[in-house]
Amino acid sequence: MKPNVLVSVITATYNSEHFIEETINSVLHQTYTNWELLIIDDASTDGTISIIKSFALKHNNIKFFKNEANQGAAVTRNKGIKEASGDFIAFLDADDVWKPQKLEKQLKFMLEYNADVSFSSYDLMTENGLPLHKTVKAIPKLNYKKFLKCNYIGNLTGMYNTKTLGKIYAPNLRKRQDWLLWLSAVKKSNKPAIGLKESLAIYRVRKNSISSKKLDLLKYNYLVYKKGLGYSTLKSLYYIIVFLLEYFFVKSKQTVTSQKM
């Protein structure tokens, strides 16, 4: 491990007062300590900002930024990417958490395999933080062609190398812009993203999430192909069919249920 390697962690927030403290603490408890946490608030109206400020006052590697008006996840994350100084960039949404060895193990893995993009398996929990005893398994290698079919990278687990790829920004779509960011990173790398089998993070399943609303999922996936990638209507519809086949017959098998203790 190279302790001089800086990892920039990007967290976008909006009305996250019930979750943000746990999220920040999961970064503070990382066994790898050479990181900076850039938190960008998208004009929250609850107590999110005061919680973030209390952490930023105590820790000089936690940096706080805010939007004067609500601009959406893409603009908010991109502001963090622009301000980042790290050799690697990782993302952690304001309601998710990392396991303590996430950065240490993932960074070691990327350096060992000379990977430009990596991701890992992750566990699922309820909105209230209770374990669902389910894990979404990362596939070992993910090339651009397969990645076009379905989003295989959980944003809370992804990391990319800014020294080899430069900074990769998200297009300004309200939803699914994280998929497009990772697609751009894999395409620019010209080699597969590498998946870690071990679960290194925990994703909070929210009642209002896209994945919980299948019709919304299809609508926003269509916009990924149509607006994000600039495909024709016919080609976009073709990829929606490809997505459905991939999602139900391949990706759905990624989620495994563990025995309850």
From TrEMBL:
Keywords annotated in UniProt: Membrane, Transmembrane, Transmembrane helix
Gene Ontology MF annotations: hexosyltransferase activity
First and last residue of the signal peptide: none
Residue intervals of the Glycosyltransferase 2-like domain: 8-137
Domain of life assignment: Bacteria
Residue intervals passing through the bilayer: 229-250
InterPro entries: Glyco_trans_2-like, Nucleotide-diphossugar_trans
UniProt protein name: Glycosyltransferase 2-like domain-containing protein
Organism the protein comes from: Jejuia pallidilutea
